[in-house]
């Protein structure tokens, strides 16, 4: 049975990259799949988080999900720490995965920086918890941006090693020849990697110190327009063909953003704007961004005014998520040979 799972960290500013690379696809998949969308608060604390700010951010990501069009009644929205299966399965996966696999993750290398010895152990084990998020529900499809591809490959490696290491026990317990599915990443659309507005070679990121590098979902119309006006570009006009965007990362990024926000292809956008200067294209892009993001930001602010309601959405989602994960985790424990209360 197909099942979608994905997660977003409640750390810092949700931005256009998170929205176009992930959340838009979360919304679309609701039509065709059963979906579980998780605010991964346990992943967030792999680097230091101020406690009050963390609680606020968990609610803000939840508000963004709902404001963008995720239905928390038909589908499941919750925060990770409320369902203990994530932590329990992550421990088992810590014992399946190899340290070498973790050391090779580019996100770990980026986030740990030079002083690897001083990174939290959780930061190293991060992908193992991510595999647990997905496999606690035996999810088959995971919509993400391009930067999560390596983590999803590791999820498949962990699933496969578990299936191999425990093959005999899996069969003996009546689970056939594979316990976990090999999850498919869904990295689709024209916006799988949105770049910084200040540097077309760096991805747009929550942690970039310059707020001008990204458009936040909570930015008002004026902030959105200013950031697009100030976005770095080259001096040439827009090309007529997508080939002409090669070697022009900033132009390529802005055209990609326009395409993703409008639902057009990049070529369609160039058919419309090819030959024009950025001084003409940028205001059109700003208007489009305000039109698409303005209502989401406004709805987020409305939802954030009632934190009790958001907490209720999360509690309700957590109960339903737990009901799916619990029997799967029981199966894992039986396969591993643990003894559990029956
Ligand atoms: P996170 O919180 O960094 O980002 C959330 C989603 O946004 C995508 N994204 C982008 N897409 C396009 N362009 C960008 N500049 C950009 N920046 C971020 C990310 O690819 C992601 O889809 N490890 C995950 C969270 C996670 C998860 C999971 C995801 C934890 N468990 C299980 C899927 C399944 C992360 O840090 O995403």
From TrEMBL:
Chief location bin: cytoplasm
Subunit structure: Homodimer.
Location within or outside the cell: Cytoplasm
Motif ('KMSKS' region): 203-207
Superkingdom: Bacteria
Motif ('HIGH' region): 10-18
Similarity remark: Belongs to the class-I aminoacyl-tRNA synthetase family.
Entries under CDD domains matching the protein: TrpRS_core
Chain positions recorded as ATP binding sites: 9-11, 17-18, 145-147, 194, 203-207
InterPro entries noted in UniProt: aa-tRNA-synth_I_CS, aa-tRNA-synth_Ic, Rossmann-like_a/b/a_fold, Trp-tRNA-ligase, Trp-tRNA-ligase_bac-type, Trp-tRNA_synthetase
Enzyme Commission number(s) of this protein: 6.1.1.2
Reactions that this protein is recorded to catalyse: tRNA(Trp) + L-tryptophan + ATP = L-tryptophyl-tRNA(Trp) + AMP + diphosphate + H(+)
One Gene Ontology molecular-function label: tryptophan-tRNA ligase activity
Protein name per the record: Tryptophan--tRNA ligase
Function (record text): Catalyzes the attachment of tryptophan to tRNA(Trp).
Residues that coordinate or bind L-tryptophan: 133
Organism: Kaistia dalseonensis
Keywords: Aminoacyl-tRNA synthetase, ATP-binding, Cytoplasm, Ligase, Nucleotide-binding, Protein biosynthesis
